[in-house]
Amino acid sequence: MSREIHTQVAPEIAHNDSLLREYVAKLFHVNTSEILKVVVQKRSIDARQKSVKFNIKGLVYFENEIYEDAITTLPDYKNVTNAQKVIVVGAGPAGLFAALKLIELGLKPIVIERGKDVRGRRRDLKAINVDHIVNEDSNYCFGEGGAGTYSDGKLYTRSKKRGDVERILKLLVAFGATPDILIEAHPHIGTNKLPQIIQDIRDKIIEYGGTVLFETRVVDFIFQNNEIQGVVTQNGDKITANKLILATGHSARDIFELLHKKQIFIEAKPFALGVRAEHSQELIDKIQYSCDYRGEFLPPSPYSIVKQVHGRGMYSFCMCPGGVIAPCATSPDEVVTNGWSPSKRDQKTANSGIVVELKLEDFKPYEKFGALAGLEFQKSIEKKSWNLAGKSQKVPAQRLVDFTQNKLSDKIPKTSYVPGTTSVEMGQVFPAFLTQILREGFKEFDKSMKGYLTNDAILHAPESRTSSPVRIPRDNDTLEHVQIKGLYPCGEGAGYAGGIISAAIDGEKCALKIAESLKHNINFI
Protein backbone atom coordinates (compact mmCIF):
# COMPACT_ATOMS: atom_id res chain seq x y z
CA MET A 1 0.00 0.00 0.00
CA SER A 2 1.39 3.44 -0.95
CA ARG A 3 2.44 5.88 1.77
CA GLU A 4 1.76 9.60 1.63
CA ILE A 5 4.59 12.07 2.20
CA HIS A 6 4.74 15.80 2.90
CA THR A 7 8.32 17.01 2.98
CA GLN A 8 10.77 19.72 1.98
CA VAL A 9 13.73 19.04 -0.28
CA ALA A 10 16.52 20.97 -1.94
CA PRO A 11 15.82 22.19 -5.51
CA GLU A 12 18.19 19.67 -7.09
CA ILE A 13 16.37 16.81 -5.35
CA ALA A 14 12.93 18.07 -6.33
CA HIS A 15 13.84 17.87 -10.02
CA ASN A 16 15.74 14.56 -10.07
CA ASP A 17 13.81 11.30 -9.71
CA SER A 18 16.87 9.29 -8.61
CA LEU A 19 17.88 11.79 -5.93
CA LEU A 20 14.30 11.99 -4.72
CA ARG A 21 14.11 8.18 -4.37
CA GLU A 22 17.34 8.22 -2.35
CA TYR A 23 15.98 11.00 -0.13
CA VAL A 24 12.69 9.16 0.46
CA ALA A 25 14.52 5.91 1.22
CA LYS A 26 16.37 7.69 4.01
CA LEU A 27 13.07 9.05 5.34
CA PHE A 28 11.69 5.53 5.65
CA HIS A 29 15.03 4.00 6.72
CA VAL A 30 15.10 1.54 3.82
CA ASN A 31 17.41 0.83 0.91
CA THR A 32 16.81 2.81 -2.26
CA SER A 33 16.15 -0.44 -4.11
CA GLU A 34 13.08 -0.95 -1.92
CA ILE A 35 11.44 2.20 -3.30
CA LEU A 36 9.52 1.30 -6.45
CA LYS A 37 8.27 4.79 -7.31
CA VAL A 38 7.83 8.25 -5.82
CA VAL A 39 4.83 9.98 -7.38
CA VAL A 40 4.89 13.74 -6.85
CA GLN A 41 1.35 15.08 -6.60
CA LYS A 42 2.05 18.74 -5.74
CA ARG A 43 5.23 20.81 -5.82
CA SER A 44 5.73 24.39 -4.65
CA ILE A 45 8.60 26.68 -3.68
CA ASP A 46 9.23 27.87 -0.13
CA ALA A 47 11.55 30.87 -0.34
CA ARG A 48 10.90 32.24 3.14
CA GLN A 49 14.29 31.10 4.42
CA LYS A 50 17.72 31.90 3.01
CA SER A 51 18.02 28.33 1.73
CA VAL A 52 15.20 27.86 -0.78
CA LYS A 53 13.31 24.58 -0.55
CA PHE A 54 10.59 22.78 -2.46
CA ASN A 55 7.48 21.53 -0.70
CA ILE A 56 6.66 18.06 -1.96
CA LYS A 57 3.41 16.18 -1.52
CA GLY A 58 3.33 12.69 -2.98
CA LEU A 59 2.87 8.95 -2.73
CA VAL A 60 5.62 6.40 -2.16
CA TYR A 61 5.27 2.91 -3.63
CA PHE A 62 7.48 0.17 -2.24
CA GLU A 63 8.78 -2.94 -4.02
CA ASN A 64 6.19 -5.66 -4.64
CA GLU A 65 3.42 -3.03 -4.64
CA ILE A 66 1.37 -2.41 -7.76
CA TYR A 67 1.84 0.91 -9.46
CA GLU A 68 0.50 1.91 -12.86
CA ASP A 69 1.25 5.19 -14.60
CA ALA A 70 -1.82 7.40 -14.69
CA ILE A 71 -3.02 7.92 -18.24
CA THR A 72 -4.92 11.10 -18.95
CA THR A 73 -7.56 10.45 -21.59
CA LEU A 74 -10.29 12.44 -23.26
CA PRO A 75 -13.96 11.85 -22.42
CA ASP A 76 -16.13 9.61 -24.57
CA TYR A 77 -17.23 12.23 -27.07
CA LYS A 78 -20.31 11.60 -29.20
CA ASN A 79 -20.87 12.40 -32.86
CA VAL A 80 -23.27 15.33 -32.75
CA THR A 81 -23.52 16.15 -36.44
CA ASN A 82 -27.31 15.85 -36.42
CA ALA A 83 -27.93 16.78 -32.79
CA GLN A 84 -29.70 19.83 -31.38
CA LYS A 85 -27.70 23.02 -31.95
CA VAL A 86 -26.32 25.40 -29.33
CA ILE A 87 -24.66 28.65 -30.40
CA VAL A 88 -21.41 29.49 -28.61
CA VAL A 89 -20.23 33.06 -29.23
CA GLY A 90 -16.49 33.29 -28.58
CA ALA A 91 -13.67 30.75 -28.93
CA GLY A 92 -11.73 31.60 -25.79
CA PRO A 93 -11.39 29.07 -22.94
CA ALA A 94 -15.01 29.54 -21.84
CA GLY A 95 -16.34 28.98 -25.35
CA LEU A 96 -14.04 26.10 -26.30
CA PHE A 97 -14.60 24.15 -23.10
CA ALA A 98 -18.33 24.80 -23.32
CA ALA A 99 -18.25 23.35 -26.84
CA LEU A 100 -16.35 20.25 -25.70
CA LYS A 101 -18.80 19.69 -22.85
CA LEU A 102 -21.78 20.13 -25.20
CA ILE A 103 -20.38 17.42 -27.47
CA GLU A 104 -19.80 15.18 -24.45
CA LEU A 105 -23.47 15.68 -23.60
CA GLY A 106 -24.69 14.97 -27.11
CA LEU A 107 -25.38 18.54 -28.27
CA LYS A 108 -23.98 20.27 -31.37
CA PRO A 109 -21.99 23.46 -30.72
CA ILE A 110 -21.87 26.19 -33.36
CA VAL A 111 -18.83 28.20 -32.27
CA ILE A 112 -18.74 31.73 -33.69
CA GLU A 113 -15.43 33.59 -33.39
CA ARG A 114 -14.90 37.15 -34.61
CA GLY A 115 -11.13 36.69 -34.93
CA LYS A 116 -8.88 34.42 -36.95
CA ASP A 117 -7.73 30.91 -36.18
CA VAL A 118 -4.85 30.58 -33.74
CA ARG A 119 -2.15 30.53 -36.44
CA GLY A 120 -3.67 33.29 -38.52
CA ARG A 121 -3.62 35.63 -35.52
CA ARG A 122 0.18 35.77 -35.62
CA ARG A 123 0.31 38.08 -38.64
CA ASP A 124 -1.93 40.56 -36.85
CA LEU A 125 0.17 40.40 -33.69
CA LYS A 126 3.24 41.21 -35.79
CA ALA A 127 1.37 44.12 -37.40
CA ILE A 128 0.55 45.73 -34.06
CA ASN A 129 4.08 45.21 -32.71
CA VAL A 130 6.02 46.34 -35.77
CA ASP A 131 3.69 48.57 -37.78
CA HIS A 132 1.37 49.83 -35.00
CA ILE A 133 -1.63 48.55 -36.98
CA VAL A 134 -4.55 47.26 -34.88
CA ASN A 135 -6.93 44.73 -36.42
CA GLU A 136 -10.09 45.21 -34.36
CA ASP A 137 -11.13 41.57 -34.80
CA SER A 138 -7.77 39.82 -34.59
CA ASN A 139 -5.27 40.85 -31.93
CA TYR A 140 -3.98 39.76 -28.50
CA CYS A 141 -7.53 39.78 -27.13
CA PHE A 142 -9.62 38.48 -30.05
CA GLY A 143 -9.16 35.28 -32.02
CA GLU A 144 -9.12 31.54 -31.44
CA GLY A 145 -8.06 30.72 -27.90
CA GLY A 146 -8.95 34.14 -26.53
CA ALA A 147 -6.75 36.61 -24.66
CA GLY A 148 -4.76 33.95 -22.78
CA THR A 149 -3.38 32.20 -25.86
CA TYR A 150 -0.79 34.83 -26.76
CA SER A 151 -0.52 36.34 -23.32
CA ASP A 152 0.96 33.49 -21.37
CA GLY A 153 -1.36 30.57 -20.73
CA LYS A 154 -1.24 30.95 -16.95
CA LEU A 155 -3.35 28.26 -15.30
CA TYR A 156 -3.21 29.26 -11.67
CA THR A 157 -6.55 30.07 -10.09
CA ARG A 158 -7.74 30.78 -6.58
CA SER A 159 -11.28 29.89 -7.64
CA LYS A 160 -11.33 26.39 -6.18
CA LYS A 161 -14.97 26.77 -5.17
CA ARG A 162 -16.06 27.48 -8.72
CA GLY A 163 -15.58 23.94 -9.97
CA ASP A 164 -13.27 21.08 -10.76
CA VAL A 165 -9.89 22.64 -11.50
CA GLU A 166 -8.23 19.22 -11.74
CA ARG A 167 -10.61 18.16 -14.50
CA ILE A 168 -9.71 21.16 -16.68
CA LEU A 169 -5.99 20.60 -16.12
CA LYS A 170 -6.32 16.92 -17.06
CA LEU A 171 -8.18 17.83 -20.23
CA LEU A 172 -5.36 20.20 -21.18
CA VAL A 173 -2.84 17.42 -20.58
CA ALA A 174 -4.90 15.07 -22.76
CA PHE A 175 -4.73 17.71 -25.48
CA GLY A 176 -0.94 17.95 -25.24
CA ALA A 177 0.03 20.09 -22.25
CA THR A 178 2.91 18.83 -20.11
CA PRO A 179 1.79 16.73 -17.11
CA ASP A 180 3.75 19.12 -14.89
CA ILE A 181 0.70 21.42 -14.86
CA LEU A 182 -0.98 18.83 -12.61
CA ILE A 183 1.83 19.15 -10.08
CA GLU A 184 3.07 22.74 -9.98
CA ALA A 185 1.50 25.18 -7.56
CA HIS A 186 1.44 27.85 -10.29
CA PRO A 187 1.02 25.90 -13.55
CA HIS A 188 1.80 27.59 -16.83
CA ILE A 189 1.81 26.37 -20.44
CA GLY A 190 3.52 29.22 -22.27
CA THR A 191 2.56 31.29 -25.28
CA ASN A 192 4.81 29.22 -27.56
CA LYS A 193 3.06 25.92 -26.71
CA LEU A 194 -0.57 26.86 -26.13
CA PRO A 195 -1.53 27.51 -29.80
CA GLN A 196 -1.08 23.86 -30.79
CA ILE A 197 -3.24 22.75 -27.86
CA ILE A 198 -5.95 25.23 -28.90
CA GLN A 199 -5.80 23.96 -32.48
CA ASP A 200 -6.15 20.35 -31.31
CA ILE A 201 -9.22 21.29 -29.25
CA ARG A 202 -10.79 22.92 -32.29
CA ASP A 203 -10.00 19.87 -34.45
CA LYS A 204 -11.70 17.63 -31.87
CA ILE A 205 -14.82 19.82 -31.88
CA ILE A 206 -15.04 19.56 -35.67
CA GLU A 207 -14.19 15.84 -35.70
CA TYR A 208 -17.25 15.05 -33.59
CA GLY A 209 -19.68 17.17 -35.55
CA GLY A 210 -19.39 20.64 -34.09
CA THR A 211 -18.96 23.73 -36.25
CA VAL A 212 -16.34 26.47 -35.79
CA LEU A 213 -16.70 29.72 -37.74
CA PHE A 214 -13.79 32.20 -37.83
CA GLU A 215 -13.81 35.87 -38.85
CA THR A 216 -17.53 35.90 -38.07
CA ARG A 217 -18.60 38.78 -35.88
CA VAL A 218 -21.99 38.86 -34.17
CA VAL A 219 -23.66 42.23 -34.80
CA ASP A 220 -27.17 41.51 -33.56
CA PHE A 221 -29.22 39.08 -31.49
CA ILE A 222 -32.56 37.66 -32.54
CA PHE A 223 -35.14 37.66 -29.75
CA GLN A 224 -38.78 36.70 -29.63
CA ASN A 225 -40.90 37.12 -26.50
CA ASN A 226 -37.73 37.56 -24.42
CA GLU A 227 -36.30 34.27 -25.72
CA ILE A 228 -33.11 33.92 -27.76
CA GLN A 229 -33.66 32.73 -31.33
CA GLY A 230 -30.22 33.26 -32.83
CA VAL A 231 -27.72 35.85 -34.04
CA VAL A 232 -26.95 37.97 -37.08
CA THR A 233 -23.37 38.18 -38.37
CA GLN A 234 -21.55 41.07 -40.04
CA ASN A 235 -22.39 39.58 -43.45
CA GLY A 236 -26.11 39.61 -42.68
CA ASP A 237 -26.27 35.84 -42.18
CA LYS A 238 -28.66 34.51 -39.56
CA ILE A 239 -27.63 31.57 -37.38
CA THR A 240 -30.54 30.21 -35.38
CA ALA A 241 -30.81 28.24 -32.14
CA ASN A 242 -32.80 28.75 -28.95
CA LYS A 243 -29.80 28.21 -26.66
CA LEU A 244 -26.79 30.56 -26.77
CA ILE A 245 -23.65 30.72 -24.62
CA LEU A 246 -22.24 34.26 -24.70
CA ALA A 247 -18.50 33.92 -24.02
CA THR A 248 -17.01 36.93 -25.77
CA GLY A 249 -14.33 37.96 -23.25
CA HIS A 250 -13.71 41.13 -21.28
CA SER A 251 -12.83 43.30 -24.30
CA ALA A 252 -15.92 42.74 -26.49
CA ARG A 253 -17.16 46.29 -26.03
CA ASP A 254 -19.39 46.15 -29.09
CA ILE A 255 -21.33 43.28 -27.50
CA PHE A 256 -21.82 45.23 -24.27
CA GLU A 257 -22.94 48.25 -26.29
CA LEU A 258 -25.30 46.11 -28.38
CA LEU A 259 -26.94 44.61 -25.30
CA HIS A 260 -27.28 48.07 -23.75
CA LYS A 261 -28.78 49.50 -26.95
CA LYS A 262 -31.32 46.67 -27.10
CA GLN A 263 -32.22 47.34 -23.45
CA ILE A 264 -31.00 43.91 -22.35
CA PHE A 265 -30.15 44.24 -18.68
CA ILE A 266 -26.44 44.62 -17.89
CA GLU A 267 -24.72 46.45 -15.04
CA ALA A 268 -21.48 48.32 -14.39
CA LYS A 269 -18.88 46.29 -12.51
CA PRO A 270 -15.80 47.51 -10.61
CA PHE A 271 -12.43 46.39 -11.97
CA ALA A 272 -8.79 47.27 -11.33
CA LEU A 273 -6.48 49.56 -13.27
CA GLY A 274 -2.86 50.67 -13.13
CA VAL A 275 0.48 50.10 -14.84
CA ARG A 276 2.70 47.25 -15.95
CA ALA A 277 6.06 47.34 -14.17
CA GLU A 278 9.17 45.78 -15.71
CA HIS A 279 12.26 44.81 -13.69
CA SER A 280 15.24 42.69 -14.59
CA GLN A 281 14.53 39.05 -13.79
CA GLU A 282 17.91 38.90 -12.07
CA LEU A 283 16.81 41.55 -9.56
CA ILE A 284 13.51 39.78 -8.81
CA ASP A 285 15.39 36.51 -8.29
CA LYS A 286 17.78 38.19 -5.86
CA ILE A 287 14.92 39.71 -3.89
CA GLN A 288 12.74 36.60 -3.81
CA TYR A 289 15.41 33.94 -3.38
CA SER A 290 17.80 36.01 -1.23
CA CYS A 291 20.70 34.96 -3.41
CA ASP A 292 23.20 36.45 -5.83
CA TYR A 293 22.67 33.70 -8.41
CA ARG A 294 19.48 31.73 -8.95
CA GLY A 295 21.00 28.43 -10.11
CA GLU A 296 19.72 25.91 -12.62
CA PHE A 297 17.20 24.12 -10.37
CA LEU A 298 15.18 27.18 -9.41
CA PRO A 299 12.72 28.68 -11.91
CA PRO A 300 12.70 32.42 -12.62
CA SER A 301 10.99 33.83 -9.58
CA PRO A 302 7.51 35.31 -9.67
CA TYR A 303 6.17 37.65 -7.02
CA SER A 304 2.78 38.36 -5.54
CA ILE A 305 2.15 41.36 -3.36
CA VAL A 306 -0.90 43.15 -1.94
CA LYS A 307 -1.11 46.41 -0.02
CA GLN A 308 -3.93 48.56 1.31
CA VAL A 309 -3.48 52.24 0.46
CA HIS A 310 -6.13 54.78 1.46
CA GLY A 311 -8.67 52.01 1.85
CA ARG A 312 -8.05 50.43 -1.55
CA GLY A 313 -6.23 47.31 -2.58
CA MET A 314 -3.13 47.76 -4.72
CA TYR A 315 -1.70 44.49 -5.95
CA SER A 316 0.35 42.64 -8.53
CA PHE A 317 -1.65 41.07 -11.34
CA CYS A 318 -0.74 38.56 -14.07
CA MET A 319 2.94 38.51 -13.07
CA CYS A 320 5.20 37.21 -15.87
CA PRO A 321 8.64 35.95 -14.81
CA GLY A 322 11.10 35.80 -17.69
CA GLY A 323 8.53 37.48 -19.89
CA VAL A 324 7.73 40.48 -22.06
CA ILE A 325 5.13 43.26 -22.26
CA ALA A 326 2.71 43.17 -25.19
CA PRO A 327 0.47 45.75 -26.92
CA CYS A 328 -3.11 44.60 -26.40
CA ALA A 329 -5.25 47.33 -27.94
CA THR A 330 -8.45 46.25 -29.68
CA SER A 331 -9.05 49.60 -31.39
CA PRO A 332 -6.64 51.83 -33.36
CA ASP A 333 -7.09 54.83 -31.04
CA GLU A 334 -6.04 53.29 -27.72
CA VAL A 335 -3.04 51.87 -25.89
CA VAL A 336 -3.36 48.79 -23.66
CA THR A 337 -0.64 46.65 -22.07
CA ASN A 338 -0.44 43.06 -20.89
CA GLY A 339 2.36 40.57 -20.30
CA TRP A 340 3.31 37.02 -21.30
CA SER A 341 6.08 34.47 -20.90
CA PRO A 342 7.32 31.64 -23.11
CA SER A 343 7.18 28.15 -21.61
CA LYS A 344 10.81 28.33 -20.42
CA ARG A 345 10.35 31.82 -19.00
CA ASP A 346 13.84 32.57 -20.24
CA GLN A 347 13.64 36.28 -21.09
CA LYS A 348 15.86 38.68 -19.14
CA THR A 349 12.99 40.78 -17.80
CA ALA A 350 10.09 40.20 -15.45
CA ASN A 351 6.88 42.19 -15.60
CA SER A 352 3.64 42.46 -13.69
CA GLY A 353 0.50 44.48 -13.75
CA ILE A 354 0.38 46.68 -10.66
CA VAL A 355 -3.21 47.76 -10.26
CA VAL A 356 -5.58 49.54 -7.90
CA GLU A 357 -9.12 48.41 -7.23
CA LEU A 358 -11.75 50.81 -8.50
CA LYS A 359 -15.19 51.51 -7.08
CA LEU A 360 -18.46 52.29 -8.82
CA GLU A 361 -18.34 55.85 -7.54
CA ASP A 362 -15.12 56.39 -9.52
CA PHE A 363 -17.22 56.17 -12.68
CA LYS A 364 -19.52 59.03 -11.67
CA PRO A 365 -18.18 61.42 -14.37
CA TYR A 366 -19.50 58.88 -16.89
CA GLU A 367 -22.83 58.14 -15.20
CA LYS A 368 -24.76 59.33 -18.27
CA PHE A 369 -23.62 56.09 -19.93
CA GLY A 370 -25.48 54.04 -17.34
CA ALA A 371 -24.27 50.43 -17.20
CA LEU A 372 -21.42 51.36 -19.56
CA ALA A 373 -19.95 53.96 -17.18
CA GLY A 374 -17.01 51.77 -16.17
CA LEU A 375 -16.35 50.89 -19.79
CA GLU A 376 -16.24 54.57 -20.74
CA PHE A 377 -13.89 55.29 -17.82
CA GLN A 378 -11.64 52.50 -19.10
CA LYS A 379 -11.79 53.86 -22.65
CA SER A 380 -10.84 57.35 -21.51
CA ILE A 381 -7.61 56.14 -19.89
CA GLU A 382 -6.63 54.07 -22.92
CA LYS A 383 -7.33 56.87 -25.39
CA LYS A 384 -5.48 59.41 -23.26
CA SER A 385 -2.48 57.05 -23.24
CA TRP A 386 -2.65 56.80 -27.03
CA ASN A 387 -2.66 60.59 -27.38
CA LEU A 388 0.22 61.02 -24.93
CA ALA A 389 2.26 58.41 -26.82
CA GLY A 390 1.97 60.30 -30.10
CA LYS A 391 -1.15 58.53 -31.41
CA SER A 392 0.69 55.27 -31.96
CA GLN A 393 1.15 51.96 -30.17
CA LYS A 394 4.13 53.36 -28.32
CA VAL A 395 3.39 53.24 -24.62
CA PRO A 396 3.59 56.03 -22.01
CA ALA A 397 6.52 55.08 -19.75
CA GLN A 398 8.36 56.36 -16.70
CA ARG A 399 11.12 55.16 -14.41
CA LEU A 400 9.71 53.86 -11.13
CA VAL A 401 11.52 56.17 -8.67
CA ASP A 402 10.88 59.14 -10.95
CA PHE A 403 7.17 58.32 -10.83
CA THR A 404 7.11 58.26 -7.03
CA GLN A 405 8.85 61.66 -7.06
CA ASN A 406 6.60 63.18 -9.75
CA LYS A 407 9.61 63.65 -12.02
CA LEU A 408 9.63 63.21 -15.80
CA SER A 409 12.25 60.64 -16.79
CA ASP A 410 14.97 62.08 -19.03
CA LYS A 411 15.55 58.85 -20.88
CA ILE A 412 13.67 55.56 -21.00
CA PRO A 413 15.91 52.54 -21.75
CA LYS A 414 14.76 49.94 -24.23
CA THR A 415 12.20 47.63 -22.67
CA SER A 416 10.59 44.38 -23.79
CA TYR A 417 7.63 46.34 -25.21
CA VAL A 418 8.40 46.09 -28.94
CA PRO A 419 6.44 49.10 -30.32
CA GLY A 420 8.54 51.40 -28.12
CA THR A 421 7.99 53.92 -25.33
CA THR A 422 7.37 57.63 -24.84
CA SER A 423 8.56 59.35 -21.67
CA VAL A 424 5.47 60.63 -19.85
CA GLU A 425 4.72 61.71 -16.29
CA MET A 426 2.14 59.09 -15.29
CA GLY A 427 0.10 61.66 -13.45
CA GLN A 428 -1.09 62.76 -16.89
CA VAL A 429 -2.53 59.30 -17.56
CA PHE A 430 -4.52 58.62 -14.40
CA PRO A 431 -6.95 60.52 -12.18
CA ALA A 432 -5.27 62.20 -9.22
CA PHE A 433 -6.59 59.72 -6.62
CA LEU A 434 -5.23 56.77 -8.58
CA THR A 435 -1.85 58.41 -9.15
CA GLN A 436 -1.50 59.13 -5.43
CA ILE A 437 -2.34 55.54 -4.46
CA LEU A 438 0.17 54.15 -6.96
CA ARG A 439 2.94 56.48 -5.77
CA GLU A 440 2.44 55.63 -2.11
CA GLY A 441 1.81 51.97 -2.84
CA PHE A 442 5.09 51.44 -4.63
CA LYS A 443 6.92 52.73 -1.55
CA GLU A 444 4.98 50.18 0.51
CA PHE A 445 5.90 47.46 -1.98
CA ASP A 446 9.57 48.20 -1.35
CA LYS A 447 9.10 47.47 2.36
CA SER A 448 8.04 43.92 1.51
CA MET A 449 10.46 43.44 -1.42
CA LYS A 450 13.56 45.44 -0.55
CA GLY A 451 15.12 46.69 -3.76
CA TYR A 452 11.87 46.66 -5.75
CA LEU A 453 11.76 50.47 -5.79
CA THR A 454 14.52 51.19 -8.29
CA ASN A 455 14.86 53.64 -11.15
CA ASP A 456 15.97 50.75 -13.36
CA ALA A 457 12.37 49.53 -13.26
CA ILE A 458 10.13 50.96 -15.96
CA LEU A 459 6.39 51.56 -15.69
CA HIS A 460 4.22 51.14 -18.80
CA ALA A 461 0.66 52.49 -18.93
CA PRO A 462 -2.04 51.47 -18.82
CA GLU A 463 -2.79 47.98 -17.46
CA SER A 464 -6.54 48.36 -17.92
CA ARG A 465 -8.06 45.03 -19.04
CA THR A 466 -7.79 43.19 -15.74
CA SER A 467 -11.43 42.13 -15.87
CA SER A 468 -14.70 43.09 -17.50
CA PRO A 469 -16.11 46.54 -16.66
CA VAL A 470 -19.58 45.05 -17.15
CA ARG A 471 -21.51 42.17 -15.61
CA ILE A 472 -24.29 40.43 -17.53
CA PRO A 473 -26.57 39.22 -14.73
CA ARG A 474 -27.77 35.61 -14.73
CA ASP A 475 -29.93 33.42 -12.53
CA ASN A 476 -27.84 31.63 -9.90
CA ASP A 477 -29.64 28.33 -10.44
CA THR A 478 -30.23 28.12 -14.19
CA LEU A 479 -27.31 30.38 -15.29
CA GLU A 480 -29.68 31.95 -17.84
CA HIS A 481 -29.78 35.70 -18.23
CA VAL A 482 -32.23 37.21 -15.77
CA GLN A 483 -34.28 38.69 -18.61
CA ILE A 484 -33.68 36.60 -21.76
CA LYS A 485 -34.52 32.91 -21.75
CA GLY A 486 -31.97 30.68 -23.48
CA LEU A 487 -29.14 33.25 -23.17
CA TYR A 488 -26.26 32.06 -20.97
CA PRO A 489 -23.73 34.83 -20.11
CA CYS A 490 -20.43 33.07 -19.54
CA GLY A 491 -16.79 33.56 -18.57
CA GLU A 492 -14.71 36.70 -18.07
CA GLY A 493 -16.71 38.95 -20.36
CA ALA A 494 -19.92 38.31 -18.44
CA GLY A 495 -18.18 38.88 -15.10
CA TYR A 496 -18.08 35.25 -13.91
CA ALA A 497 -14.44 34.23 -14.33
CA GLY A 498 -10.91 35.55 -14.00
CA GLY A 499 -8.51 33.55 -16.14
CA ILE A 500 -8.20 30.46 -18.32
CA ILE A 501 -9.15 27.85 -15.73
CA SER A 502 -12.11 29.65 -14.16
CA ALA A 503 -13.40 30.61 -17.62
CA ALA A 504 -13.16 27.00 -18.81
CA ILE A 505 -15.00 25.82 -15.68
CA ASP A 506 -17.74 28.39 -16.28
CA GLY A 507 -18.07 27.27 -19.89
CA GLU A 508 -18.60 23.68 -18.78
CA LYS A 509 -21.15 24.80 -16.18
CA CYS A 510 -23.21 26.63 -18.78
CA ALA A 511 -23.14 23.61 -21.10
CA LEU A 512 -24.34 21.38 -18.27
CA LYS A 513 -27.18 23.75 -17.43
CA ILE A 514 -28.30 23.79 -21.06
CA ALA A 515 -28.33 19.98 -21.18
CA GLU A 516 -30.25 19.94 -17.91
CA SER A 517 -32.81 22.42 -19.23
CA LEU A 518 -33.33 20.20 -22.26
CA LYS A 519 -33.43 17.07 -20.08
CA HIS A 520 -30.75 15.88 -22.47
CA ASN A 521 -28.51 13.02 -21.35
CA ILE A 522 -29.74 13.74 -17.84
CA ASN A 523 -28.24 10.50 -16.55
CA PHE A 524 -24.78 11.94 -17.18
CA ILE A 525 -25.58 14.96 -15.06
Q: What layout of secondary structure does this protein have?
A:
Blueprint: E1 3-9, H1 11-14, H2 17-27, E2 35-46, E3 53-62, E4 85-89, H3 93-104, E5 108-112, H4 121-131, H5 165-174, H6 194-207, E6 211-213, E7 218-224, E8 227-233, E9 238-240, E10 244-246, H7 253-261, E11 267-268, E12 272-280, H8 281-289, E13 306-309, E14 312-320, E15 324-327, E16 337-340, E17 349-357, H9 373-388, E18 395-399, H10 400-404, E19 421-423, H11 432-448, E20 458-463, E21 470-471, E22 487-489, H12 491-494, H13 500-517
Parallel strand pairs: 4-5, 4-10, 5-6, 10-22, 18-19
Antiparallel strand pairs: 1-3, 2-3, 7-8, 8-9, 11-21, 12-17, 12-20, 13-14, 14-17, 15-16, 18-20
Helix pairs in contact: 3-6, 3-13
- Tell me the span between the first and last alpha carbons: 33 Å
* Net shape: globular
Integer average pLDDT: 94
- Range of strand content: 15-25%
**What does the radius of gyration come to?**
24 Å
Percent helix range: 25-40%
Structural class: alpha+beta
Strand elements, count: 22
The low-confidence parts are none
Physical arrangement of strands within the biggest beta sheet: 13-14-17-12-20-18-19
Give the count of helical stretches. 13
* Major sheet attributes: 7 strands, mixed
